[in-house]
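Write out the 3D structure for:
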Amino acid sequence: MFVAFPAAATDMDTPVEYTEQERRKILSMTALDSERFLDPTNRFSGNEKAVAFGKLLFFDKRLSDDRTVSCATCHIPKSGWADGKLYASRDGALRQTLTLTNIGYNRWFGWGGSSDSLWAHSLIPIEAPNEVAGSRVQVAVRIQTEKDLYSTYTELFGPIPAEIAPAQLPEQGRPVSRDPDHPLHRQWMALSDSQRRAVDDLFVNVGKAIAAFEATIVSRSSAFDRFAEGLRDDNPSQMAALSTSAQRGLKLFLGKAKCVLCHSGPNFSDGEFHNIYVSRAGEDDYGRWDGVAQVRASSFNFESRHNDARPEQAFPWVRYVTRIPESKYQFKTPTLRDVAQRRSFMHNGRFSTLDEVIDFYDEIDEAKEFQDHEETTLVPIGLSHQEREDLIAFLHSLTDEEAQSELPDL
């Protein structure tokens, strides 16, 4: 059975036909469920005061060592919540900034899945030397010495233990397990056990507030969603939200181009990790291989005392995740929602346009020389010029224009 859909009013092309199987697949990719953003591992998820505090912290540069960097320095709202720069633009960084769009729908966080919760992942950049370059002790000091931060924090989380008052702490300090002689590690270990515990608690609260805000960064009302809603309701005017070109691109997305094999579901991502041969020769970044080790070693993972969920609310995937040889060079499948707003693509920012991305997949065999393990679903697509244009038209239809218009212009 085939179902024909009318084109947009300005298109004179023949209407696109979809099989019943394609129709069901389209309906499975419709708008996201907002209720899923209530993270059971974060008791402040969905709390309006926590969201407001997290937004303040997200755009605030006072958590960085030199007060010049905030989360928004790299996660720029009008650049697809990323910065579009190549990985080499930050000293020592191997990866480009991953978008925050619909980040609350992930099971693993980061290109390699180094965290199993959004709040835990939001803490990593704060202490990364090539990102915010702060430390958890410094965060504890700044929260208490900046009047507005202190009042907002204590109103939300309660009083801060006297044993970690600024006078009781060094200016900096964090664990550096791989280098026990590191100055920051020595300062961290000079604190008492109870002080380290209290600093960790404050640090986690900051992460949970930031995560509460980041979970509100949602793209769910695009032209594609209007089309899919019209398909479900048999409403021709809504189905006309997609041009004929974009409708053809959708058919390619589901079929010949095989995009849906990884970019599936309402978030246009399977949430998993794949080796697509995109790493450059000589890159020392093992992706998921490293991410597994990092999430298992994290003191903030689901197995930690900071997890607010009851046992039945959040499955501890980290307990069972293991390294396998195939995980080397595997990286997260990013969401394609708002993908046209981004300035670079792939974990290492290898491509700067969607045309280049499609070129890469169209000739995928040329990239295999750099990798050890084969992703058997990837084969050259063989798209015509018109098919490339149609596929790009569909990718542009995944932008939530209303949400984009409300973003702050930094």
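The CA atoms of residues 162 and 168 lie 8 Å apart.
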